[in-house]
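debug: dumping io for the single-chain case to check the tokenizer round-trip. Nothing else runs in this session.
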Amino acid sequence: MASFASGDESNEMEALLRARLRRFYAAYQPEKLEDESHFDKLVAKVGGGANEKKNSQLFSMLVKKYGPEPEDELEAASEDDAEEEEEESAEDALRKRLERFYGAYQPEKLDDPHHINKLMSKIGDATNENKVNSLFGMLVKKYGPEPDEADENDDSAPMSPEAALRKRLERFYAAYQPEKLDDPKHINKLMDKIGDASNENKVNSLFGMLVKKYGPEPEEEGNEGECEEEEEEEEEEPKEDEYGLGLPRVLYCPVDGLPPEYCEYGPSFDEALPWLAKRCPDLVLTTKSGATVEDYALARKAGDLSLDEDVGKKKNKRGKGILGKGKKKNKGDAKVTIEAVKRGKRKFVTVITGLDACGVKVKKASKALSKKFAGSASTGKLPSGLACINVQGDCVYELPDFLVEEFGVEKDKIFILAKKKLSPAFPQ
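debug: decoded output
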């Protein structure tokens, strides 16, 4: 089909064609630029430049004869500027991406601008996706999953399971062993053991081991106050069953699924102890020498294992057995012994024996000692069968005066055991 154009349009097309031809010959045969008749012949062959098909055929012949058509200088300059802008935008995006990554895992490295520059210089071309992906693959393997841009700008954006698990582990070790946070490999090893962070069974098993080793898991800072208020409200409001019969709802331990009174008989008592200490601190443990949950937890934390001895055997109150009546205690032979026992590197537990032989009730004495020294005081039995009281801390030299004033124990019956030597607390 022939193409029709107005006079002004045809003149404009002819001028564009002449300029394109002159640019072509300026690159390959500049001497022909002086011969205007040569360009008149070429323009006449294609019909004045209005037919694009003929124009392309003409330049195909010229390219085949001379070489590729030279680009327009203005167009080339604009393309170069666009490429430079694209490279600059790619570098800015890469720098922001690196800053976001280190801001999540090692923000202290952002204080050194040379660190980011070194990483970018290793890549060289920021538009090279292979090199960029290789770099971030190494960073993810070393630190953890790359934080999303949404997480940086929106605090309410949901975290990935890996990021949530890492944050939970960091919060746990920050409460018990903050020095381990200096070594990022420690957290990475724990996460490698789990493998899939969305596997709740593996995650709960890991934190069960950590709770058993260190203590209860610390709550998130922002939700701690809200959780306490909710717990107080729940305790104040009477709970009724779902059928509206007005019956109280039974409280069950989330660890072993048992009521608190039966947790001590279950297989997971050690794991349930932090929850019991928080919800039922005054609960009496019949298998732990009658100590309360709070006293037992403090004794375990202090390294005192005397309460774990089985004291649930039935006792004959009258002292009768196969051999007949047991021997009555002679108060004249009673002796109260005080000894400081080391538990761990810097912790001590003061052990008191012989108070029952002086007519002092051991349980009442333990409560009075707990109030006096503002610490845990639990009752138990030594392997020899003697009743004892374990007081948290070293209070050997404060106890004798307190025993005399509070319980009326005679001074000549109180002795201090130190370095395997027994010496009177009140030397004459």
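debug: round-trip ok. Residues 151-156, 224-243, 310-329 have pLDDT under 50 and may be disordered.
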